[in-house]
Design a protein that fits this description.
By secondary structure, the chain is of the alpha/beta class. It has one domain: Rossmann fold, CATH 3.40.50. Helix content is 34%, strand content 31%. The protein is built from eight helices and nine strands. The longest helix is centred in the middle third of the chain and has 13 residues, at 120-132. The chain is globular. 38% of the residues are buried. The mean pLDDT is 93.
Length: 202
């Protein structure tokens, strides 16, 4: 349906980084209840891998403020530059999450409003990547769509690709890679309509 838009995600976020940063600055931390549920599964000061970290504001900033070391990964060098300026003591990496191989594990893995920009097959291939970077009992939290399909949003006036697998397939992929679903809410009205998955390695 939207192969051109899907292929252009990295370039779009690089070119429109400032648009995203300015827009995100006005939304506040509406994700806080989910971040607190995520943190409840982590050891104190457990390290977190933030895939698609954006500018680190406000989600990574909240976690850093609570004492969690953050390794942030984003394909946009402009976003990572903003992270490094704001939080120079954390680790920020320009990389494509689809090919990530850090050879270390984390207590928590976050892929909030990032993983869902991947096409269906790339999403399927991400679950072994999650598993490879998950320490014992690690928490994994990501957002998806409510059902299998593709959708086009907008960023800086340009088309922004999203995709989702069927919920049953997400459950299967999580199970195949050793994760159990802790909580799932479809289009959470208290979180801006996000469909959220929280899972834990067993």
């Amino acid at each position: 349906m939207a192969s051109e838009e899907a292929a252009g995600i990295i370039d779009l976020y690089q070119r429109k980084a400032q648009d995203w940063i300015q827009s995100r600055a006005h939304t506040g931390l509406f994700e806080k209840p989910w971040l607190d549920r995520f943190r409840a599964l982590l050891p104190p000061a457990g390290p977190i891998l933030d895939l698609g970290c954006g500018s680190a504001e406000p989600m990574a900033a909240y976690l850093i403020g609570l004492g969690h070391p953050i390794t942030g990964v984003d394909s946009s060098s402009a976003m990572i530059a903003a992270c490094r300026e704001r939080f120079p003591k954390q680790e920020w990496i320009v990389a494509d999450m689809r090919t990530l191989a850090l050879r270390r594990q984390f207590s928590g893995i976050l892929a909030w409003d990032s993983f869902f920009h991947l096409c269906h097959n790339d999403q399927r291939r991400m679950f072994p990547v999650f598993r490879e970077h998950a320490a014992a009992s690690a928490a994994l939290m990501f957002t998806s769509g409510p059902a299998h399909g593709e959708a086009i949003g907008s960023l800086g006036g340009e088309p922004l690709y999203h995709a989702s697998l069927d919920p049953a397939e997400y459950r299967s992929l999580l199970d195949q890679n050793g994760f159990r679903v802790v909580s799932r809410v479809v289009e959470d009205p208290d979180c801006g309509g996000h469909t959220v998955w929280l899972a834990q390695l067993i």
